[in-house]
Automatic annotation (TrEMBL):
Protein name per UniProt: NUDIX hydrolase
Pfam families: NUDIX
Requisite cofactors: Mg(2+)
Family: Belongs to the Nudix hydrolase family.
All copies of domain Nudix hydrolase, residue ranges: 7-152
SUPFAM superfamilies: Nudix
Entries under CDD domains matching the protein: NUDIX_Hydrolase
Keyword Hydrolase: yes
Amino acid sequence: MFDPSLRHRPTARVLLFDPAGRILLMKGRLPNRPQATAAWFTVGGGVEPGETLEAAVRREIAEETGFRQIEIGPVVWLREGVGALSTGETVLFRESYVVARCPGGEASRAGWEAHEVDLVDDMRWWTLDEVSVATERIYPERFIELLPEVAAGRYPAEPLVITVPRRPRA
């Protein structure tokens, strides 16, 4: 299991769809690991102390995309994983994947923080067909498998726990 001494970081991850059913993904690299291969991932980030998940979703979407007209849906997936912040601190991310919809259009990077500018290389809308044949990594694990149900508006009664068990080291 995960190291209990790690700081827990509640995180709002957003499955952000436009009216055409496309999902917005960002492509970036891990902090302090320039040799790491880039991967695609959803919009989102940390939930600030005292902030609700919905407020964090709205804030992250506005900061990372500029979109402010947002319809927020349910939490559909939950995931935990150990990772590094841009400061280098290792934390246990506790991710809630929330469905949201916006009018679409060109996303803005105007609200990005310096570490986002440094680590994020691309941001674009993907169709489900493009996601289904993607050869580049997309996070979270099982994203390609689970996305079609969510995109179709078929949400689980309770959020699915999609944490991938850690493999024991040999």
